[in-house]
Write a structure and sequence with these properties.
This protein has 210 residues and is α+β, with helices and mostly antiparallel strands. The chain has a domain at 63-202: FAS1 domain. It is built from seven helices and seven strands. Strands 2-1-7-6-5-4-3 form a seven-stranded mixed sheet. The chain is elongated.
C-alpha cells in the first residue's frame, strides 16, 4: 500500500512538473510571438517613415527651384550654368532661397568673354561664386522685398550667398537690382514659387566684384 501511494505521489509530481514545463514553454512561445509582432510593427513603421520621407523628398525636388527653372524655357542657360557649377543639387534640396534668375537673353547680352571664361572647367569655383551672387538666403516674395525697400528709403543693400552686396530699389512698382559694377537689372517676372524658395526672373546678368 505504501509503495502504491509512493508511486502515485511520484506520478502526480511528474504530471505537475510536466504541466509546469508545458506552461513555461507556452509562455516562452507567447513571449517570442509577441516580440516578433513588436519587431514586425517596428519594421513596418520604419518602412512607412522611409516611404514618407522619400515621397516628401521627391515632391520637394519636383517643385524645387531647379525644377521650376527647368520648366521655364527662358531659363535654360541658367540651368546649364548651375549644372556646370555642380550647384543644381543644392537648389533641389531643402533650404529656403531667393534666386534672381537671368533669362537666356540676359546671358546672351552679358560679356561673352567673362561668361565663356567662367564656364571653363578649371574655373568652377568662380562660376559658383558668380551664381551665388544671384541668390539670397531665405524666401523673399516680391511684396516683402518692396516693403523692405520702402523702409530703407528705396535703397536696400542685401548680402548674397557669395558674401557680396546687391542694392535693390523700386521704380514704377518694379524691383531694380544693382550689382557691384553699377549695372541695373529689372525683375521682369516675380514670385515663381518653389518648394525651397522663390524665383524672380531678371533681364540682366549680375556681376559680382570678382
Amino acid at each position: 500500500m505504501k509503495i502504491r501511494t509512493i508511486i502515485m505521489s511520484v506520478a502526480v509530481v511528474g504530471l505537475l512538473f510536466a504541466s509546469c514545463e508545458d506552461t513555461k514553454k507556452k509562455e516562452a512561445e507567447e513571449r517570442a510571438a509577441a516580440e516578433q509582432i513588436r519587431m514586425d510593427r517596428e519594421r513596418d513603421s520604419l518602412l512607412k517613415v522611409e516611404e514618407m520621407n522619400a515621397a516628401r523628398a521627391a515632391e520637394m525636388e519636383a517643385n524645387s527651384i531647379v525644377a521650376k527653372a527647368m520648366g521655364n524655357s527662358e531659363l535654360s542657360t541658367l540651368v546649364s550654368t548651375l549644372k556646370a557649377a555642380d550647384l543644381a543639387d543644392t537648389f533641389k534640396s531643402e533650404g529656403q532661397y531667393t534666386v534672381f534668375a537671368p533669362t537666356n537673353e540676359a546671358f546672351t547680352n552679358a560679356p561673352q568673354s567673362i561668361i565663356g571664361n567662367l564656364m571653363e572647367p578649371d574655373n568652377k569655383d568662380q562660376l559658383q561664386d558668380f551664381l551665388k551672387y544671384h541668390v539670397l538666403q531665405g524666401k523673399l516674395p516680391a511684396a516683402d522685398v518692396l516693403a523692405k525697400v520702402k523702409e530703407a528709403n528705396n535703397k536696400l543693400d542685401v548680402t548674397t550667398l557669395n558674401g557680396d552686396i546687391l542694392t535693390i530699389s523700386e521704380t514704377n512698382g518694379k524691383l531694380m537690382i544693382k550689382d557691384s559694377k553699377g549695372k541695373t537689372a529689372t525683375v521682369s517676372s516675380a514670385d515663381i514659387d518653389a518648394s525651397n524658395g522663390t524665383v524672380h526672373v531678371i533681364d540682366k546678368v549680375l556681376m559680382p566684384s570678382m
